Amino acid sequence: MHQRSAHRSLLVVGSVAFDDIDGPFGLHKDLLGGSASFISRAAAYFTKNVSVVAVIGEDFPAKYLEEMSAQGIDVSGIERAKGDTFHWVGKYADDLATRETIDTRLGVFADFQPKLHDSHKDAQLVLLGNIDPALQLDVLKQVRAPALVATDTMNLWINIKRADLEKVLAKTHTLMLNDEEARLLAGEHNLRKAAAHILKLGPSSVIIKRGDAGALLFHGGGVFAAPAMPLADVQDPTGAGDSFAGGLMGYLAYAGDLSPTTIRTAMIMGSVMGSFAVEKFTVDGIRGLTTARIQQRFDELSELAHFERVRL
Ligand code: AMP
């Protein structure tokens, strides 16, 4: 993407992790994962103004941080603490559509207290990746006046930390979550009704991610649907939602405005980055992409969803 001076700053808070992924393609251990890993790498294709706040353990290879720096990501907010890096173990069903968490080893996350550098406190866009909502709240208390706070969460936090999550939602502009999580949070199966319920908790918009069925944006003005790219080869859906969020927020930082048209385009950029993520394990699907490849897939999605209005 072109460099534009109007790029807004994007602060990403989330997990940097090792993942063990089991499923139809066998068990893959010790893969680089974590919400902040996918989000920041996806966003960095659109703007060089991405900073990450996270924690890693003594076992975390420096090469991954160097790779992020080479992409232009500010990693000065990634704290190295005594102990092991967060480790998540997940298992996918044969259809790759459903997954269960087998194990969550918090490691250094257990004692993590995010402390923002002064330069990070003025971030214009803040993306609270999926971590304990108590930590998301800590970050919100430190940022000064962000134009947009977007929050991701998961079923674990909805189940065990609902009170903290509700405090985060009260300060969130855009909530991103998947369909199952939206139903759980709202206590409502119908997604339109679930979205209406969630909008009463604080956010002015909610994005419901539906895997290979695309994503829906609900806001006061109505609903917008972003399709998912029908792919011939899907290896690992881990990080799809985070790469979607990274593409979306990265594009908003790049565009420099929050108009309804820009937000729609950002939803499609999210879908583009999510589609690359699922083609390979770990961050491999979003490693080494070019602007030309991102543009090509954006154009393919535009073609896929394009239709003319007719009058009957
Ligand atoms: P996604 O597939 O986009 O929902 O995100 C998957 C990523 O979330 C994996 O790389 C995990 O390391 C990370 N993750 C899973 N559970 C948690 C958790 N409880 N807290 C923080 N990150 C998590």
Key features?
36% helix, binds adenosine monophosphate, UDP-N-acetylmuramoyl-L-alanine:D-glutamate ligase, alpha/beta, 23% strand, 312 residues, globular
Query: How many discrete structural domains?
Result: 1
Question: What is the C-alpha radius of gyration, as a whole number of Å?
Answer: 18 Å
Give the integer mean of the pLDDT values: 96
Terminal CA distance: 40 Å
The amount of beta strand, in percent, is 15-25%
Total beta strand runs? 13
Shape: globular
CATH class: Alpha Beta
For the biggest sheet, the summary is: 9 strands, mixed
CATH architecture: 3-Layer(aba) Sandwich
Strand order of the largest sheet: 5-4-1-8-9-10-11-12-13
- Bin the helical content: 25-40%
Q: Superfamily at the CATH H level?
A: Ribokinase
What does this structure look like?
By secondary structure, this protein is of the alpha/beta class. It has a single domain (10-305), classed as Ribokinase (UDP-N-acetylmuramoyl-L-alanine:D-glutamate ligase). Helices cover 36% and strands 23% of the residues. The chain is built from eleven helices and 13 strands. A nine-stranded mixed beta sheet has the order 5-4-1-8-9-10-11-12-13, with helices on both faces. A four-stranded mixed beta sheet has the order 3-2-6-7. A hairpin with a 5-residue loop joins strand 2 and strand 3. The chain is globular and about 65 Å long.
